[in-house]
């Protein structure tokens, strides 16, 4: 079983461990090596834990009895289950309560079903009527685990320098912010100077240039005056 960033399971996570922000989706996929006619992969149950222990009492249910867990349906996606030679799904990442280090491990019970006489049909999840192929103590069920995924707590844990000025974590998500006189651009990362601020800065630079020129002219005129006075004094002597 492997972890992916996308629903199609084409982009695997990078890093050791991979890092995501809260609500970023974590997709998982378990599959046979090759597609075999009549072989269906089933995942009656999948869940997440904060440790590598699949029996950890602290857990978050993802798939229950073949369907997306009803406890948090808006955050769970069951992409393939009871349909083909692989199972896949995803869950929006979250924060465990009262834990300093935030890690997510995913575990799935997987059954290989030989589809004869249409006996690998999965549950009807929309009406919550379920028809499980294997009983909980069925020896055909194999447990697969994968992880961890780390939940980021700081802006630079995933992408250093993602913000052109300042970055802060708000409700577990990174948010770029700007100093006074700037606003966030369309990419939500780059700070762009306000028009009024630009005018002020141009005027400030212009005023500074004029002041510098005045200092130079004053120095030159003073030097010339001193030179003239010295020559006049030499002639008198």
From TrEMBL:
PANTHER family: ENDOGLIN/TGF-BETA RECEPTOR TYPE III (PTHR14002), ZONA PELLUCIDA SPERM-BINDING PROTEIN 2 (PTHR14002:SF54). It comes from Ciona savignyi (Pacific transparent sea squirt). Residues 1-132 form the ZP domain. This is ZP domain-containing protein. InterPro entries: ZP-C, ZP-C_dom, ZP_dom. Keywords: Disulfide bond, Membrane, Signal, Transmembrane, Transmembrane helix. The chain crosses the membrane at residues 210-230.
């Amino acid at each position: 079983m492997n972890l992916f960033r996308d629903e199609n399971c084409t982009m695997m996570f990078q890093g050791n461990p991979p890092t995501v922000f809260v609500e970023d989706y974590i997709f998982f996929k378990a599959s046979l090596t090759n597609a075999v006619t009549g072989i269906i992969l089933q995942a009656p149950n999948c869940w997440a834990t904060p440790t590598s222990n699949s029996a950890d009492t602290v857990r978050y249910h993802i798939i229950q009895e073949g369907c997306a867990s009803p406890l948090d349906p808006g955050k769970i996606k069951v992409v393939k289950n009871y349909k083909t030679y692989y199972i896949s799904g995803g869950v929006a990442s979250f924060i465990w309560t009262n834990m300093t280090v935030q890690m997510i491990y995913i575990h799935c019970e997987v059954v290989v079903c030989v589809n004869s006489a249409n006996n690998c049909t999965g549950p009807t999840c929309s009406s919550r009527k379920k028809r499980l192929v294997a009983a909980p103590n069925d020896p055909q069920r194999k447990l697969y685990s994968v992880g961890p995924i780390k939940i980021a707590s700081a802006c630079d844990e995933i992408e250093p320098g993602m913000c052109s000025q300042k970055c802060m974590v708000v409700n577990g998500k990174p948010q770029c912010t700007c100093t006074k006189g700037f606003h966030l651009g369309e990419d939500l990362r780059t700070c762009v100077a306000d028009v009024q601020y630009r005018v002020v800065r141009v005027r400030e630079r212009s005023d500074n240039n004029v002041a510098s020129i005045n200092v130079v002219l004053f120095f030159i005129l003073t030097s010339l005056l001193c030179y003239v006075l010295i020559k006049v004094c030499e002639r008198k002597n």
